[in-house]
Amino acid sequence: MGTLLRSESMSLCQLFLQSEAAYNCVSELGELGLTQFRDLNPDVNAFQRKFVNEVRRCDEMERKLRYLEKEIKRDGIPMLDIGDNPEAPQPREMIDLEATFEKLENELKEVNTNAEALKKTYLELSELRHILKKTQQFFDE
Question: Which domain holds residue 43?
Fold first, then answer.
């Protein structure tokens, strides 16, 4: 497999794909790591493109994954290393992944909130116990 270095020979190609096959073709090309894409519509605003909603969904899922990864690393839980370039999921799998990430993020936020509440309660109760011990010593004297 080659690299995309300046000295390496390259070919400029233009692909015409059917809408139904575009995702699979682009994901296969991306997984090979030998392709660069050129924007043929540079004057079009990013928010006017057809795929902007899919990109936003992917960005949101990436944010959730980074949050989950940060929490996993913070707790010292070992993670399975699958390499740098995992295979792109199929569009129908994206919906399931999105729902799973949303569920995991909500559960983790709830666990963190409960852990903070427990720490706060523990500290308050420890403080009260310490006060009771000191007052008991005072009254014993």
Answer: 21-79+92-140
- Distances in whole angstroms, Cα of residue 140 to Cα of each of 126, 129, 132: 21, 16, 12
The reported pTM is: 0.69
CB 78 within 8 A of CB 115: no
Domain contains 64: yes
Tokens of 79: 């993670």
14 part of a folded domain: no
The whole-chain average pLDDT of the chain stands at 86
The count of structural domains within the chain is 1
Q: Report in angstroms the alpha-carbon separations of 23 from 29, 54, 66, 88, 134.
A: 10, 11, 24, 10, 70
How is residue 4 written in tokens?
A: 């995309």
Helix intervals (H) in the chain: 19-32, 52-74, 91-140
Tell me whether residue 41 is in a domain. yes
